[in-house]
Amino acid sequence: MALIALFGLIYAIVFAIGIWYNWSLWLMIGITLFFIFLQYLISPFIINWIYRIEWIPYDQFRAQFPHLAEAVDKVIAVRGIKTPRMGIIRDGNPNAFTFGWTKNTARIVITTGILNYLNEEEQKAVVSHELGHVVHNDFILMTLVFAIPLLLLTIARWAFYSSRWSRASDKEGAAIGLALIAIAVLSYIAYFISYLISLIISRIREYYADEHAGELTENPNTLSTALVKIAYGLLIDAQYEEKQKSTVRALRGIGIFDPRSAVSFAAASMSGSGKYSKDAIQAAASWDLFNPWAKYYQMFSTHPLPAKRIMRLNNQCELYGLKPELDFSKAKQIKKEQAGKTMMDEFLVDVTVKFLPLLIFIALGAMTVLWIFGAAGMLDILVNTLTLSNLLLFWAAGFYLIGFGSLIKTKFIYKSGFEPKNVLELVTNIKVSPIRTIPTFIEGRVVGRGMPGYYFGEDLYLQDNTGLMYIDYRFGLGIVDFFFAIARVKKIVGQRVRIKGWYRRGPSPYIQVDTIETETGKRFRNYAKHFTYFWAILAFIIGLVLFYFWYTTF
User: Residue by residue, what is the 3-state secondary structure of 119-150?
Assistant: First the structure.
């Protein structure tokens, strides 16, 4: 994300220069293509620079992790590709990714969290998924797919800004200006549609990589259980303790893990038969399947929701005569018990609250237009009494409404009434959303960064005695997040902490921080909630200024 933001900033600056000097459309398209190629060319170098990746010679990797090398060697033999470069990030956040230019220049990276929390078969499934991206040449394909929306956006922006240069007093210039505006509107619509299509393609590629993992391991269940641990943070393997010991022994040999920092883990959601934990998984998956927010996030996501992926993997099990280890047969019943027949009413309330200040502003603008022009004789009284004095007073009152709307929004999404919770209790709550939160205290050990290995990542990853949780520190001001990332995060990782915050889900489960208290007595506050009052205060100030002008002028 940071890499995309960096390229986006540079591109925006160059585009602004191009608009200022009225460069031609073909030149702007050429510049866009150049930036796409440049990003493709240097992205692997930048990723290698901003992430703490420890590269392992493949012979050493094969000796330490023969079960993973087995999958890699099989793909190399069947597909005839060059051996990928294998790397490990020293971070307890279970994650994996691949990058490169082509399938013959691939790099595959896993975290120590993958080695700690997943059994060997699940680890193999995760690596096999990444190998699926490699053999399918997704590096090149997705670069081309996402290039199309960017080109259409370039055309839309160029046409819009160029229309402003046309001379409105000249008939021919005015006609050209209108034509450019039409091109801008149509291009932007095409951009938005193509962007959604590119996301669909990205999700399809993820399904293909999942299928590749199922084929390579001949057991799609292993990736399903791995997804539960990675996506929901629920650890369900009864053999965890033995796995932890074997992982420590393996990592000691290559010097990338200190056994003294290993943390024992007992999955409280695990009964002797595993039945309770599977019910918990179905509750966690019910959010993906039934919460309306899940459909919203799915539309704008590069990855399918975990429950959708697991369902596809369950279908693949039939090819190998296997019974799906995870099924969602009780998910609907669990959803009904927690949320009733429908959750659409709560979703509509959430959306209204989320956009409340904007909705008030739009309503004020619409009423102003109706006031000025009238609407089928319905507003004759208002139109007949329209004066600048009344309009100023109307907007002064309107900005006070916007300010109160901002306060209502803050009060709704930052609820009080904090109570102690654990990961299991939070993840299995179906009614939570990015707006409808659970104020909570949670205690555990910080095992890694939210984005493992990323130098400038301000977020954390926490483990308690029931599971794993993403901790979102994001303040809202880049300079504050940057300082916290480089000065604080490294010191917090490995410590036991008590976090006060708001549990949200959108689509992954996470807690937004209010306060972090460490075992060493350090205390870190996050004033993101308080920062939201700025917009309410600004609205009140604007309203006061308008009221002052109304009072002194009229």
Answer: CHHHHHHHHHHHHHHHHCCHHHHHHHHHHHHH
Residue 511 in contact with residue 504, Cβ under 8 Å? yes
Q: What is the DSSP letter of 488?
A: T
Residue 453 lies in a domain: yes
Which pair of tokens denotes residue 288? 């993906």
**pTM reported for the whole predicted model:** 0.84
- Return the DSSP state at 12: H
Structure confidence by residue, pLDDT tens digits, 159-197: 887 776 655 556 666 677 788 888 889 989 999 999 999
For 508-537, the pLDDT digits (tens) are 999 999 999 999 989 999 999 999 999 999
- Contact present, 84 and 106 (Cβ < 8 Å): yes
Contact between 298 and 304 under an 8 Å Cβ cutoff? The reply is yes
CA 304/CA 313 separation, integer angstroms: 12
Say whether 369 sits in a helix, a strand or coil: helix
Question: Phi/psi at 495 (nearest 5 deg)?
Answer: -90, 155
Q: Domain containing 443 — which CATH number?
A: 2.40.50.200
Residue 541's alpha-carbon distances to 122, 217, 365, in angstroms, are 57, 63, 19
pLDDT bucket at 3, cuts 50 / 70 / 90: low
Q: Dihedral through CA 244, CA 245, CA 248, CA 249, nearest 10?
A: -150
Provide the β-strand partners of residue 516.
Answer: 499, 524
Helix (H, G, I), strand (E, B) or coil at 310: helix
In angstroms and rounded to an integer, the radius of gyration of the C-alpha atoms of the chain is 27
Task: Identify whether residues 85 and 157 lie together within a single domain.
Answer: no
Report the candidate in 532, 535, 531 with the shortest Cα–Cα distance to residue 402. 535
- Per residue in 320-342, pLDDT (tens digit) is 999 999 989 888 898 888 888 88
DSSP codes of every residue in 371-433 = HHH-STTTTHHHHHT--HHHHHHHHHHHHHHHHHHHHHHHHHHS----EE--HHHHHT-SS--
Residue 348 lies in a domain: no
Burial class of residue 307, CB neighbours in 10 A (0-12, 13-18, 19+): buried
Under DSSP, the state recorded for 83 is P
In a domain, 194, yes or no: yes
Catalytic residue positions, numbered = 130
Query: Is residue 405 a part of any domain in this protein?
Result: no
Residue type, 324: P
Strands of 423-492 (E only): list them. 438-449, 460-463, 468-472
Distance of alpha carbon 320 from alpha carbon 125, whole angstroms: 15
Per-residue tokens: 138: 């997704």
